[in-house]
């Protein structure tokens, strides 16, 4: 497990460095910013660099965590993600609400990572 977390830390560092140097992407990690039917929260995420970066970080973390979990726990994590997306959508175009939603979700995902490291091998 320790190796997985070390690799994850390296991946996070590489991703973080890449985000700060890259031009504004045409897509956030979880949806295409070029779509014509974006809803309010998606539009703001696409137009606000910090929210776009938060989306990339959150989705990348979610994907990595999903791949590490046992099948039953994956379903629970996916349901939690679906519930969180509804909460994010309810923020509409409120940048502060979206910022808070991403911070809370990252905290939850990081706690799930911490829980993994405490499981016996």
TrEMBL record:
Keywords attached to this entry: Signal
KW Signal (keyword) present: yes
Origin: domain of life: Bacteria
Signal peptide: 1-28
Keyword Membrane: no
One cellular-component annotation, GO: extracellular region
Protein name according to UniProt: DUF1311 domain-containing protein
Source organism (scientific name): Rhizobium soli
């Amino acid at each position: 497990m320790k190796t997985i977390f070390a690799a994850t830390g390296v991946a996070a560092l590489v991703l973080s460095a890449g985000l700060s140097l890259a031009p504004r992407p045409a897509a956030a990690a979880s949806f295409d910013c070029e779509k014509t039917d974006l809803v309010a929260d998606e539009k703001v995420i696409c137009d606000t660099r910090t929210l776009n970066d938060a989306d990339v970080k959150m989705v990348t973390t979610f994907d990595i965590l999903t791949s590490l979990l046992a099948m039953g726990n994956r379903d629970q994590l996916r349901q939690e993600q679906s519930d969180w997306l509804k909460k994010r959508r309810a923020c509409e175009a409120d940048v502060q609400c979206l910022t808070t939603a991403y911070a809370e979700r990252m905290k939850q995902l990081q706690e799930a990572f911490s829980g993994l490291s405490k499981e016996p091998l």
